Structure formats: structure tokens, C-alpha cells
User: Fold these one by one.
Assistant:
Number 1:
Amino acid sequence: MSDKQGVYRFSFGPWNIDEGADPFGPPVRQPIAFADKARKAREMGFHGLQFHDDDAVEDPDRKSASQIENEATEVRKILDQEGLVPEFVAPRLWFAPETIDGAYTNNDPACRQYAIDRSKKAVDIMRILGAEYMVLWLAREGTYIRESKSPNEQILLIRDAINELLDYDKDLRILIEPKPNEPVDSAIVSTAGHAIAMGYMTKDPARVGCLIETAHSMLAGLDPSDDMGFALAHEKLWSVHLNDQGGLKFDQDKSFGSYNLRHAFNQVRVLDEAGYGHNGEWVGLDVKTMRTQKQEVSWKHLSNSLKTFQFVLEKVRSLDKSIQRQLIQERDYEELDRYILNHLMGVPY
Ligand code: GLO
Ligand code: MG
């Protein structure tokens, strides 16, 4: 455990202010221009933005290198104007027809090649934007039925693809964002353990870390603060996606702390006690606008999540460690539970 407290820079992605479409209904809000989202980000107190490759350059598959350069340069100008930093670029490897049955693990070698070429374009975009690293959310690497792919082969194909990207850019750092399911029934790199082990299999483990998202840990039936602790112990927690989730259902991406404040408290406690952020690690949010929200207030889940983080951080730092230590020593965990609940509720202890 570090004796430093954490230092925090916050980010979100343009997809986190969305139009409200879901699998059962169409959009209910108008799209908001990127420049307006960037301005809002600054006004709300964020320090950076996250990107998919096509958040910066629309449909990069159809663009020449110079078109990519021009479009990404425009985005960079907007970021500079707002004083925002691009945190990462993630190749969108789950949209194109070539990725229907997976990207790096597709059974068709031509589709696998598409995924690698697309990822290299994402690296190029990352460099033009000046983003700090690449995030790999391996959305369609997995199966709908087990007999369609070999699990060990999938792992080796992902390793080979990552190795190729590490060769493509000698300074590239990749963060794997694990998720156990959705969109596929069963993802092959499903937990923090899988993501970190995957990194160790590559040719340069020092350049591969992970990003833990609250909801993804919960969908795996795990406690996000434990996953964060696991990654911290490996010195691999290079970013987080904070949000919340009401149990084992679809990926809800609710505002941070909105379902379970104690979960939120423990995630921030684990980060803060480890001195998170001193090596430049970001606190990213990956939260979705409620479909019911009106256009002009469609960013409140972001400012709410930020406020909750600050509130919970204050609770983490004002926890009386001597009481905590004493109750641990007495092994009176019922009393420790009481103390924590009183502390969170603002009731005198
Ligand atoms: C979806 C993921 C997704 C990623 C984003 C960046 O469940 O959380 O939002 O975080 O595509 O890789
Ligand atoms: Mg995420």
C-alpha cells in the first residue's frame, strides 16, 4: 500500500452522451456535435476524452491516410482549444461486416487481416491525436456456441495480433478491457485475470496493461474493487471505467454509485490507498445517458458521476483509520460494518 493519496484526472468518451437508441427502440434525442461535447466536458471539470478510432475519423475503412490525418488533426484542434487531453483510442472491431464472427479470432483469415489492418489505422489515429495509449475491448472475441471456435487457439490468435501491433509501433502501450459477455454470449478474455495473463503472454508484457470497468467485473459476478486490487498488485491497472450495475443483467452503464454507494466507496478506497494516478493513470467514466433524459440535460449522468466520485473520495479520506484498525484487531467485523455504514450515511458513530 502506498502512503501517497491518489491524484485524479477524469475522462469520458463521446459515446457517453448518446441519443438513447436501445435494442427495442430508436433514438429519442438529437446527436450533439463533438465540439459541443468537448466544451461540455471542460465545463463539467473533465480533463480528457476517450476515443474509438471512428469517434475521431468517421468510417476510417474508407479513408486515405491523408484524409485520416486531416480529420484527426481537426479533432486535435478542438481538444487543444478546450484544454482537453485525449486519453486513449480504441479500434472499433465489432461493427464492420468483417467482424461479425470476431476480429482477431475470426475463423476467416481475411477477416482477421482486416482486424489487424483496422487496428493499425487506430494506432495512426492515436498518434495524430497524441493519445496516451490504445484500449482493446475485445467485444466479439468469443463464441455464441462453443463448437464454433477453439478456446486455446483464440487466445493464441489474440496474442499474435497484439504482438503485431507492438511491432507496428515501438512506443505503443495497450490496455485490455475485459468483459465476460455482451455482445457475444461468452467472451474469451473475460476478467481482469484473463486480461493480465494475456499481457504476460505477449512479446513485451511491460507495454500491456489493463482497464477495469465496474460493470464488467459485476457481470462476471466479481467485486470491482477486488479486480482493481488484483490489477494494482500486478502494477497493471492503467485505467478504469467507473459506472454502476444492478446485478447480473445487461451492461447498464449507470452513473457511478447510483445503485451501490458502498461498492463505489470501496472502488475509490482501493484506488486512493494505492496512490492511483501518480503514474498518469486516468479515472474514466463509461456511463450511459438514461433513455428518459431530455436533450438539454443529457449530460447529467456525467456530472453526477463526477460529484459522486468526489463525495465518496471525501468519505474515504475522512474514514477514521484508528477505529478501523482497532475493530480489525478485535475481529469485530459486525462493528466495523456498523462504523462504515454510519460513516457513509453521515450518522455520528
Ligand atoms: C462496452 C465497453 C465499451 C468500451 C469502449 C472503449 O461494454 O465498456 O464502452 O469501454 O468501447 O473500448
Ligand atoms: Mg468500458
Note: The chain has two domains: 10-316, 319-349.
Number 2:
Amino acid sequence: MKLLVTGGAGFIGSNFIRHMLGVQDEVHIVNLDSLSYAGNLENLSDLSSDPRYTFIRGDITSAQDVEKCFSQGIEAVINFAAETHVDRSILDASVFVRTNIEGTYVLLEACRRRKVSRFIQISTDEVYGSLDETGKFTEESPLAPNSPYAASKAAADLLTRAYHKTYGMDVIVTRCSNNYGTHQFPEKLIPLMILNALENKTLPVYGDGLQRRDWIHVKDHCSALQSVLMEGQPGRVYNIGSDQEKQNLEMVHEILRILKKPPELIEFVTDRPGHDRRYAIDASRLKRELGWKPKIRLEEGLAQTVRWYQENAEWVSRVRSGAYFEYYEQMYEKRDQTLKNS
Ligand code: NAD
Ligand code: TYD
């Protein structure tokens, strides 16, 4: 199968590409990624010589860039490419609207024209909004996004649904809970707290820290996506989660415990505007219909993740400084110049 993965240089996309090439021999993956601040080719450097893997630098909002990929005979598309950080979306929503909504539209249109057999939109539980103390989000829960990020993802979900209803396209939307694991850009809760603790910096906890998230290891998310890609029903939405709900403060204390750092590093800071109080995912449809099961317990997965960040200080310093981005920027400029001159 020839698969187009967009956003494959990011956290989940890079884990997914490695997962798929590890479990399937008969797959070729084209990775289309614009290498935004969150995209890092170093995440996939071990695959650069694998003949089943091709990287194309490009933007999902550009029909031309997308066409360049489709001309390689793509059979299915998985759209990970997105702006993903809620705090950034609060400061400036424009790029979220562009990438998350317009980019999804450009991909859907290309799939329609090219009659691509399957389109998977990687969405998030944040489209459902916030829960009270009890209950879980099911696929029938109403969409009630509270941040510009979540609203842009919900808009893309609806557009994807419309392409199924209107044009009969084979599309699937997945909505996963908060991921953790290796290669996550250190602006999200888990890597940020690990790195601050390692450097004896304060750990900024928003508000009272009693917000709850439902944590899933990125490898379990990837195995769920493999099941959806292979066996999912067209037009269906699948929730993905692993029933591991924790308060933010509990997560931060656990990281400090693993690293043997004092709780005095915690600093309560001004809350995020529109901060969702609780997310919890009911993934029973995916388990029942496709037989998927998560494998990684939070305690074990979190300890492994902490260890990975401890052992990969160079990766951290390069993604933080943007050094890799500049390196590739120069490399691509040089390549484009050579192409122009030839
Ligand atoms: P990430 O921020 O780590 O990576 C996003 C990737 O998309 C980067 O490689 C970036 O360069 C690329 N990208 C951004 N704009 C682009 C554009 N216009 N064209 C091409 N590439 C572009 O994100 P992530 O955490 O890996 O999330 C991947 C997907 O999963 C997103 O769609 C996100 O909404 C969804 N999701 C994330 C989580 C989570 O906890 N991280 C949970 C559920 C769903
Ligand atoms: P985040 O990793 O940004 O994911 P999301 O907002 O998509 O759930 O944040 C997870 C939770 O941690 C969320 O409730 C906000 C909180 N948080 C902090 O308390 N401090 C921080 O510095 C960050 C980045 C997040």
C-alpha cells in the first residue's frame, strides 16, 4: 500500500511511520511535512535509507505541494499535519485556521479528484469540550470545542464528514485523548515538566492543577490507527483512549518522584483562558468492532518517557534551538538553488 502521511515529522506522525514500517513489509510511506517549529526530521533519521520511505517538504494548504505527493500514486492518506498547541492558538488562531481547516480541505479535494481509496483525519477528544466530574465522551457526544485549536479541529472533522455524505468518499475520523511518549516537542505538559525538573526550573501548573486528562502512550495510539486504517468502516468516527485518567497535579508529582526532585519546584501560575476541566474517552466502539486493546500502563510508560528525555539531551537542545530546522532550511535552499541552476 502506498500511504501519504502528513505531519510525519511531528510527535505522533513520526511514531506512526516507524510503527507502520516496523509491522508491514508491503507499505511505502510518503511523508509530507512543512517542518514547522514542531516538525523535526531528526525524529526519523533512522529511516532515511529505508527504500519504503520518502520525505517531501511541503505544506498541506498548497494544492501544488499536495499534488506533488499524489502524482506518486497514493492509495490512502492519514492527516496528522496540524498546529497543535492550545496556548499558541489562544495567542494567534490564524495559522490554526489555515493549516487545520484549509489544509484538510485541500487534502480532501485532492483525494476526491484522485479517487484515493481512504482518508483518515486525525482528530482529538478536545472537539467534545469539557466534562463534569463523571461520564465519558462517546462518538455521539456533541461537538463543543472551547479553544481556537479545538474549534479548528472540529471544523476539519465536519468537513471530512461532509465529503463522505456528499461525495461518498471513504473517510474516517479518529478522536484520541492526550498522548505522551518519546519525541514530543517540549511545550506540552509532560516533556515540559520533565525538562524543567531536570534543570531544577519551576514547573508551571495552570490554575489549581486539578484538571483531568486521559493519558495514552503514543505507541498505543499508533496501533489503534493501524487497526482503523486496515479495518475501519467508511464514514465512521472512532474514539481512541486507554482509560488512564489523572489530574495534572498528580502527573507532575509523579514526574518529580521519578526524577527524585522536590515538590517545591511546582509553581501555580495564572490559569489558561477557557481551560477545559476534564477529558475522558469511551473507546469501546474501537475495542468492540476492531478488537484493538491498549498495552502500555501509564506508570511504566511515563517512567520510560522520562528516561528517554534524560538520555536524549542533544535532541532536546536541537529542537529547542531550532538548529535542526535551520540545518534543513539551508539544505533545502542549497538543493533548490542547484535545481534552478541545472
Ligand atoms: P506536532 O505538533 O508534534 O506535529 C505536527 C506536525 O505537522 C509537525 O511535523 C509540523 O511540521 C507539521 N505541520 C504543521 N503545519 C503543517 C502544514 N501546513 N503542512 C504540512 N505539515 C505541517 O503534533 P502531534 O502532537 O504529533 O499531533 C499530530 C496530530 O494528532 C494533530 O492533528 C493533532 O491534532 C492530533 N492529536 C494530538 C494529540 C496529542 O496529545 N499530541 C492528541 C490527539 C490528537
Ligand atoms: P497540554 O499538554 O498543552 O495538552 P492539552 O491542552 O491539549 O490537554 O496540557 C495538558 C494539561 O496540562 C492542560 O490541562 C494544561 C496543563 N498545563 C499546565 O498546567 N502547565 C503547562 O505548562 C502546560 C503546557 C499545560
Note: The first strand starts at residue 2 and ends at 6.
